[in-house]
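Two proteins follow. First one:
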Amino acid sequence: MPAEQQLLIAGAWRAAASGATHEVRNAYTGEVATVQAAAGRADAEAAVVAAAEAFADWSVTSPAIRRDVLVAAGDALQDHAAEIAHIVSEETAGTFGWGMFNVALAASMFRAAGALASEPTGEMVASDVPGLRSTAMRVPLGVCVGIAPWNAPVILAARAVVWALALGNTVVLKASEQSPRVHAAIAEALLSAGLPDGAINLITNDPADAAEVVGALIEHPETAHINFTGSTRVGAMIAAQAAPLFKRTLLELGGKAPLLVLDDADLEAAAAAASFGAFMNSGQICMSTERIVVDRTVHDAFVSQLAARAEALTTGSPFEDTTMVGPVVTAGASRRLRELVADARAKGARIVSGEGEGEGEGEDEREGGDGPVHRPTIVDGVTPAMRLYGEESFGPVVAVVTADGVDDAVRIANDTDYGLAAAVFGADVDRALAVASRIRSGICHVNGATVHDEATAPFGGVKSSGWGRFGSGEVVREFTTTRWITVSEQPRQYPL
């Protein structure tokens, strides 16, 4: 029997008001992994009301208690790491190793958020009025809605809630339709750590009802803030819906991360980072390396090394320990990847390795028993005429673009609507840093992979990759507002 997942509202697990449910199927086996409660507008509104009622107490709970709850929740998450990683494989077809990594980083986010809870949240402000004590205080916003995706399900669900809770807000977590039980594990860890009823609420839904449910969460008068991680298309819709209501949003959206290989790069290190960045979690990471911009003088040697690495990666069942690259999340995602590769090949690109290599290959969807497994694919000679040049593939397919010198490489890197992550490889670090400074992205790593995240680092993008930042150095501005408080410590003289 498939597992069931209910809604969490005001501390109680319950079915949707309508009794409706929706099935989540595993991409590899085709079997039902979870039957989730399919919330409607009434359920979404009830979750916001519960969070609003809990806010009065949680917002004034001492920082020490908030810290202890969050640290204990991180420990609880780590204690159930293997169980949660298995659910990641069941619901999203991610490998077991990917699930374990998710839990480890999410647990570190809980602990970092716990530390943040105890940091000062106010400062004295100079005043020209004698005897006036003037203070700028950071105070919680109220109810924060977090909308998390399926691709890094433990990390991104944790990120959607921990910073808000640390700073005294309460939360409604809108789970991904693809990973409801994984996201429920975040709520369960918090409840087990002693978070008060209503401070965390969980909504699951049928994809067909997503617009109605998200709309109800945004529109509710008690909702103060929305954070969303997902596609640029949906992020734009959320921003447009929230703006007329003067509600703040934090949006971490799509990416088309470039990795630049300069003429003096360590090619072995660059190929290792490119392979990891392009194919980790089957390329289904917002920071995934989607375009490799290689200087013409080192192109052939680099591509040869990258191809060797790609061909050594094992593909197959996400439940096998030996699998390095599992299936993509749906058969539809696999079909789209094959279309992108076919379009590039038809327009002159060369398939160096993977799906579509050679005549007549790449037509088999390999659905059903083998799932939509897409072999790590390198497409060389990609040009702006090809869809793969500009479209986010979100799969284990990477485009190689040849550059003639540094200026051309920077031009190609910036020739995208996106601006989340980037990387530059070069032996002359000062030169590589100068190149990195010219790339328009929220994140850039010199001599490191595009895929990298830490709980304490500012994380977010520019252009169509969104706005705002996660990470403990930035979230105080995101999840609080400033109040000016004054105290007159001696009688004031007024002109009237």
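Second one, unrelated to the first:
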Amino acid sequence: MTRLLPPLLLTAVLLAAWELACRALYLPSYLLPPPSAVAMALIQRAPLLLSSAAATFWMAFQALVVAFGLGGGLALAVSLNRTTERAVRPLAVALQVTPVVAIAPLVTVWTGLDHADRAVVALAAAVAFFPLFSGVLTGLKSADSDLERLFDLYCSTPLQRLLRLRLPAALPFILEGLRVAAGLSIIGAVVAEFVSGSGATQGLAWRLLEAGNRLRTADMLAALACLMAMGLALNAAVGALERAVRRRLA
């Protein structure tokens, strides 16, 4: 409770101030609805928002799995050879700094216009790729140098060195990369759905576009609240996994 109470109190104060400001200034609902109107929109559109949130979460989860497999596997491969790492890292950075909106049309064409969900997963995976690649690679190179020399002394095989030294040392970095990538996968899924040009995915981004076109600001804020809740839940799940792993290693 000591950890939860301060943010809950601050949230309650901010919501109360928002409600009072909307009523005192007589703001039109299409410009800024009060929190009570947003809560009503959440209740009234709960089935639709839940189904859309499930669609967005499923695409983000698939993207996170793909990014973890590709980023972690590539980091593991290049960590064995410094020349390969020097060759691959600039390409990984280039992928990270390329805006997802710039490659969205290409990915949509490559995956097929009838498979918008594949485009969303691919684009979200591209967004979440670099934190996992960087975290795994940094972690694999963070093993204690004295222990590295000890493994050399005992003539350990590369597989023994990887499983018994480098992977345990890399776990905190991997989990931190996973925490960052989890949030980015949701962001990537939403942005990818915005720019994919299709409502076939029917995720929360499509609900935002739909409500925005009709000037239903309360519905937009309700969808945003669902996205925030989803991101916080995923972050909390990864945080719980990280704490469990740390306790096991302690």
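SUMMARY FIELD: The longest helix spans residues 158-195. The chain has a mean pLDDT of 84.
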